[in-house]
Specification:
The protein is an alpha+beta fold. The chain has helices spanning about 35-50, 65-70; strands at about 5-10, 20-25, 55-60, 75-80, 80-89.
Length: about 90
């Protein structure tokens, strides 16, 4: 439609063929599968431009984002305040 729902971005490109990703939605658009769809599209985009892997870092307290990210990326590290994810493309 014509509403702004949020953003999905690739950033932090490195020399090893990877980058970070982030998805942020406005509250009224959460819990509808949009974030999962956006993350899947970011993975597809990253692969199509020749990246080797995609990473994400989620705040330990954001359980909804951790659950969503686990649907698309593999958990690789859990720290005191962050959870790190990665998917090889």
């Amino acid at each position: 439609g014509d509403s702004f729902a949020g953003e999905a971005t690739l950033y932090g490109f490195d020399l090893l063929g990877g980058c970070e990703c982030a998805v942020r939605l406005l509250p009224k658009f959460r819990h509808n599968g949009y974030a999962t769809l956006a993350l899947e599209l970011l993975k597809e985009l990253a692969g199509s431009i020749g990246l080797v892997y995609l990473s994400a870092t989620v705040d330990q307290n954001n359980q909804a984002s951790i659950k969503m990210t686990k649907k698309c990326l593999d958990e690789i590290e859990r720290g005191e305040d962050k959870v790190k994810f990665r998917a090889y493309l």
